[in-house]
Amino acid sequence: MRSVFSVLLCALTVSFGLGALAKPAVGTCSAELCDGNSLDVVSRSLGPSPTVQRKDLSNAERLAQGLPIKPPTRRTDIVPRKHLLASPVPKVNYHGIMRLVEISTGDIMGYVANTELSVGILSFTPVISEALQISFDINVGATSGTNLAFTMLNGPPSGPPLGLVQGRDNTNTDLAVGSYHYLYFAGVSPPVTQPDAYPANIPNGYTSATGTVRAAESSVWSVDLVSGAITGEWTNSNLAQPPISFWSQGVALYAGSDSNAFFSRYPSRIRPFRLEFVSTV
Known about the structure:
The chain has helices spanning 2-22, 59-64, 205-210, 259-265, and strands spanning 44-45, 91-102, 108-116, 122-125, 133-139, 144-148, 150-152, 161-166, 182-187, 216-217, 221-224, 229-232, 245-249, 252-256, 271-279. β2 and β3 (108-116) form a beta hairpin. It is an alpha+beta fold. It has 4 helices and 15 strands.
């Protein structure tokens, strides 16, 4: 009798153990960012930027943010004509939004959103009315521009420049083919960084939200007004500029030099995309 009971007990134990092994893990996440990084989760919309009076805003930028234009001022520091420098090349200001096009299909994924995830980085949205509005200046007559700083007109207060920020798990500030290192899209505190300069530990959305210091650059964008193509640039610590591509994981946006290496480290679905500028004026 005892033998029969022992056999039954052993069978139940094995059955329970196999059931436990077959049961899938709950809450497993293999993405770089897990909490709130889904189209099913509504990101924290920050709406229009606070109407802070800024002396460095142009009248066009002030109008775009709903601010009154600056009153005219009388010049009292008149310089003799012989000391005047040559005038800078006139600029044209462009306003628009950033569209994501999936590389593998050519389908429109959505738009860079005027929202911030809980860790202070930008996401994308399929809803055009929730798109981030940007502005930038290009020389009169030019059809493209490089080393541009994008001003976020309705984005998070960690800007207004839209920059690229060193990823959480990066061991240094450098990108390279074969490296999983990555960058976030995030607001970067003004003034803008100089073109082709080293990454700098300046205030940015990710650092402000998490308390983790990460380097950033903001004069990193190039735009072709004919094709609409937007490309990015990152300067490594040795001043080398590696190739840059874009991808998403969940709704979070990333840039880097090797999306395959990123996926190997964070094996959750990624969607490589290209960025396009869509004028709203």
